[in-house]
Write a structure and sequence with these properties.
The protein has an eight-stranded parallel β-sheet. With 216 residues, it is α/β, with parallel strands linked by helices. The relative contact order is 0.17. It has one domain: TIM Barrel. The chain is 35% helix and 20% strand. Strand 2, helix 2 and strand 3 form a beta-alpha-beta unit. The model has no long low-confidence stretch (mean pLDDT 98). Bound molecules: D-xylitol-5-phosphate (DX5) and zinc ion. D-xylitol-5-phosphate binds next to strand 2, strand 8 and helix 8.
Length: 216
């Protein structure tokens, strides 16, 4: 099953509810919620109060992508604020498995993200505890960057681990996803596409529908 996850990092925050309604009515099924702490990544984005405001306004499945150092400190808070899935970074914690277990104990889907410099072999042992893997195809911290093509080579490797280890998980590509590269990313093994600037710049409904058409 494929999922399309618009990243609201690229939305207009003065009309966030409207922007979310647009991607939802156009047929997106997930929402990507980028949390940045100014420590794990240089930027600071948004957090709990925004999630609490968004949650009652949408039925979309919300993936909170926590680009924060020591994410275990905040898992319960994000779960209570309404995330459906919480994705932590492998590079941001001493105990990724502990964090993934904590997410599941909160009754939420668990995700693990890897930055461009991280080899998929580093997370193989953690995959049994993850429902979702985010392969970052840009350096985390900013939208509107260009996709690093070498990162896409991690997708078949992760699908191979999935098969060999008898697992099942979603794989998302996050960073620099455009209409022009979406098909090849899916071909390589992703079943979730995250896109920020390619959705929210210009015709939000039209962009969403074009992605969904491509992903069929
Ligand atoms: C980057 C974020 C991405 C970002 C993607 O740190 O994790 O989710 O919003 O934005 P685009 O699609 O513009 O590269
Ligand atoms: Zn993200």
């Amino acid at each position: 099953m494929v999922h399309f996850a618009p990243s609201i990092l690229a939305a207009d925050f003065t009309r966030l509810g409207d922007d979310i309604s647009r991607v939802e009515s156009a047929g997106a099924d997930w929402l990507h919620f980028d949390v940045m702490d100014g420590l794990f990544v240089p930027s600071i984005s948004f957090g709990i109060p925004v999630l609490e405001s968004v949650r009652p306004k949408t039925r979309l499945f919300i993936d909170a992508h926590l680009m924060i150092e020591g994410p275990e400190r905040y898992i319960e808070t994000f779960a209570k604020a309404g995330a459906d899935q919480i994705t932590i970074h492998y590079e941001a914690t001493e105990d990724p498995i502990g964090a993934l277990l904590q997410i599941r104990e909160c009754g939420k889907k668990s995700g693990i993200a890897i930055s461009p410099e991280t080899n998929p072999a580093m997370i193989r042992d953690m995959l049994p505890y993850a429902d979702h893997v985010i392969v970052m195809t840009v350096k985390p911290g900013f939208g509107e960057q260009s996709l690093i093509p070498e990162c896409v080579d991690k997708l078949p490797v992760l699908r191979q681990y999935e098969k060999e280890d008898g697992l099942e998980f979603n794989i998302a590509v996050d960073g620099g996803v455009k209409l022009g590269n979406a098909a090849s990313i899916i071909e390589a093994g992703a079943n979730v596409l995250v896109a920020g600037s390619a959705v929210f710049a210009g015709d939000i409904e039209g962009n969403t529908k074009a992605f969904l058409e491509l992903m069929k």
